[in-house]
């Protein structure tokens, strides 16, 4: 193994803000977000793509930040849990998780919400089966998932009622 | 937590550049979606000095339909594949397979080529560095003993891709790019019955596309797998079945392929006797027993081989009966 760290100049957008950073070739997106940008809302759970806690949106699609090399995100648009609030107020999904008790210990919640965000952007009116499919890659050890599904249904209904799109 | 080893990342934009990057650099590996590969790199199972990332190659990301059949780029994601109209309608098992790979998030960036070239898996191999070290490693990686079959000199790690069996029943062919040329070979020739070296690719060769023949388009088919976690997991046993039958139910063509029970995805042989007959309870039982005989699950998962052998026969029989109506 060579001692020199190979580096790449990464240009990407994170939560609407453009970044130009030099990253090591072996830096994972989750470490870039947490360590370099201080966005610690994205969690590290299993570190191997099994739990979904590190899910973020890359070009609008959910993706495991622990299985993504930061250097491959050049020119990508990355969205993390920190960007969901709308002018200091919780987004419909965040409110759903609060109102319907979708979060207990809260560790899986950022990943769950980002996976759900990706789902609702693609399918604003998901069936229960669609929600189960969309969140299949996310593990929760507290809730038993029923409350999480209700939270997403709440958000979908809320968005329909207010005629707003999911996250601005 | 394990740290990423140090490596240099290459991001070619064309197939030619990818081949060059792979050949010009020592100990280089291709990585597509990375859903399995990056986990292996992190665990120290793979220790590349160079990683050639294929995600920036746009030439491998399209699905096109022509008179010869369906052409699927190796960089097409599993999500694009399982939602594609022509795949759902004409090559149903392939859509089932793509939807069964890992969880929905993995399917958004995991690719067709990556799943076809997936490394073989074993309980004694896909573990952390300290786990493997405490166990004296294994035949597949650094060690000299196979813990699945001690005394043997063969590696029994199981091929666990979901795409291969469904593509095999449709007699798929793959394009392989190598030095200066692209050759087309039957998908079944991509694999060896050897857990250590299960791909027939020469160093540097790259699978760039899959072709599905037009003649078999529209044949009924299905894929199903047994797994520990229903929402996200590698198969313990997987079966793809393709059946063509006449209006009165006579079987005109039948193909069955298996995954996760051998070091390579296997086409079941000895089904010719069913052509020209109608499926009966008795002949369905025969198919079940044939599948069970040819599957050779070993102790490569936490689930016992005898169970996987039983379940693979049962799935094959059920799918066949469902397709036969």
Radius of gyration of chain A: 16 Å
Order of helices and strands of chain B: EHEHEEEHHHHHHHEEEEEEEHH
Q: State the end-to-end CA separation of chain B.
A: 50 Å
Characterize the main sheet of chain B. 5 strands, antiparallel
Q: DSSP helix count of chain A?
A: 5
CATH topology of the largest domain in chain A: Ubiquitin-like (UB roll)
Distance between the termini of chain A: 45 Å
Largest sheet of chain A: 5 strands, mixed
**Largest interface (C-beta under 8 Å):** A-B, 37 and 29 residues
Number of strands of chain A: 5
Record the SSE blueprint:
The complex is a heterodimer of chains A (168) and B (325).
Chain A: E1 7-14, E2 17-24, H1 29-36, E3 55-58, E4 61-64, E5 77-79, H2 92-99, H3 109-122, H4 128-134, H5 146-162
Parallel strand pairs in A: 1-5
Antiparallel strand pairs in A: 1-2, 3-4, 3-5
Helix pairs in contact in A: 2-5
Chain B: E1 8-10, H1 15-24, E2 28-31, H2 37-42, E3 50-53, E4 63-66, E5 69-73, H3 78-83, H4 85-90, H5 92-100, H6 104-107, H7 112-116, H8 129-134, H9 163-169, E6 173-178, E7 181-186, E8 206-213, E9 220-226, E10 237-245, E11 251-259, E12 266-267, H10 281-294, H11 305-324
Parallel strand pairs in B: 1-3, 2-3
Antiparallel strand pairs in B: 4-5, 5-8, 6-7, 6-8, 9-10, 10-11, 11-12
Helix pairs in contact in B: 10-11
Could you explain the architecture of this structure?
The complex is a heterodimer of chains A (168) and B (325). In chain A, α2 packs across α5. Chain A has 168 residues and is of the alpha+beta class. Chain A contains five helices and five strands; from the N terminus they run ββαβββαααα. Chain B has 325 residues and is α+β, with helices and mostly antiparallel strands. Chain B has two domains: 1-56, 2-Layer Sandwich (Uridine Diphospho-n-acetylenolpyruvylglucosamine Reductase, domain 2), CATH 3.30.43.10; 58-117 and 158-324, CO dehydrogenase flavoprotein, C-terminal domain (Enolase-like, domain 1), CATH 3.30.390.50. Helices cover 29% and strands 21% of the residues of chain B. Chain B is built from eleven helices and twelve strands. In chain B, the strands form three sheets. Chain B has a five-stranded antiparallel sheet with strand order 4-5-8-6-7, with no helix packed on it. In chain B, strands 9-10-11-12 form a four-stranded antiparallel sheet, sandwiched between helices. In chain B, strands 1-3-2 form a three-stranded parallel sheet, with helices on one face. In chain B, a hairpin with a 5-residue loop joins β10 and β11. The radius of gyration of chain B is 20 Å and the shape is globular. In chain B, 54% of the residues are buried. Chains A and B meet through β4 and α4 of A and α2 and α6 of B.
């Amino acid at each position: 193994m060579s001692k020199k760290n190979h580096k790449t100049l990464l240009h990407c957008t994170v939560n609407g803000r453009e970044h130009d950073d030099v990253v090591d070739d072996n830096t994972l997106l989750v470490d870039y977000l947490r360590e370099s940008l201080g966005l610690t809302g994205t969690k590290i759970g299993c570190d191997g793509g099994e739990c979904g806690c590190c899910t973020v949106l890359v070009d609008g699609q959910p993706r495991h930040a622990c299985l993504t090399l930061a250097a491959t995100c050049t020119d990508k648009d990355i969205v993390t849990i920190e960007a969901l609030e709308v002018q200091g107020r919780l987004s419909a999904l965040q409110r759903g998780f609060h109102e319907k008790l979708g979060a207990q210990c809260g560790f899986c919640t950022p990943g769950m919400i980002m996976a759900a965000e990706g789902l609702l952007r693609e399918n604003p009116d998901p069936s229960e089966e669609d929600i189960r499919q969309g969140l299949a890659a996310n593990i929760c050890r507290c809730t038993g998932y029923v409350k999480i599904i209700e939270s997403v249904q709440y958000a979908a209904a809320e968005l329909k009622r207010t005629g707003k799109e999911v996250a601005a | 937590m394990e740290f990423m080893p140090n490596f240099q990342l290459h991001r070619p934009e064309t197939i030619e550049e990818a081949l060059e990057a792979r050949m010009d650099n020592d100990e280089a590996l291709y990585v597509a979606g990375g859903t399995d590969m990056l986990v292996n790199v992190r665990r120290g199972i793979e220790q590349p000095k160079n990683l050639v990332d294929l995600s920036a190659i746009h030439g491998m990301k399209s699905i096109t339909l022509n008179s010869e059949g369906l052409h699927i780029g190796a960089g097409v994601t599993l999500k694009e594949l399982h939602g594609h109209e022509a795949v759902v309608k004409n090559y149903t098992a392939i859509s089932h397979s793509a939807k069964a790979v890992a969880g929905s998030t993995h399917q958004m960036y995991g690719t067709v080529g990556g799943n076809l070239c997936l490394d073989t898996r074993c309980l004694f191999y896909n573990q952390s560095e300290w786990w493997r070290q405490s166990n004296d490693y294994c035949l597949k990686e650094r060690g000299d003993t196979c813990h699945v079959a001690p005394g043997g000199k063969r590696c029994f790690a199981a091929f666990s891709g979901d795409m291969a069996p469904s593509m095999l029943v449709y007699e798929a062919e793959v394009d392989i790019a190598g030095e200066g040329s692209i050759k087309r070979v039957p998908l079944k020739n991509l694999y060896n019955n050897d857990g250590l070296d299960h791909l027939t690719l020469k160093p540097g060769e790259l699978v760039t596309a899959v072709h599905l023949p037009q003649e078999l388009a529209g044949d009924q088919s299905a894929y199903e797998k047994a797994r520990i976690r229903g929402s996200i997991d590698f198969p313990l046993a997987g079966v793809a079945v393709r059946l063509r039958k006449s209006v009165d139910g006579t079987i005109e063509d039948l193909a069955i392929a298996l995954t996760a029970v051998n070091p390579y995805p296997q086409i079941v042989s000895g089904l010719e006797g069913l052509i020209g007959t109608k499926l009966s309870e008795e002949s369905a039982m025969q198919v079940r027993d044939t599948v069970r005989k040819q599957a050779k699950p070993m102790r490569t998962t936490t689930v016992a081989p005898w169970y996987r052998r039983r379940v693979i026969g049962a799935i094959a029989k059920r799918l066949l009966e469902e397709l036969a109506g």
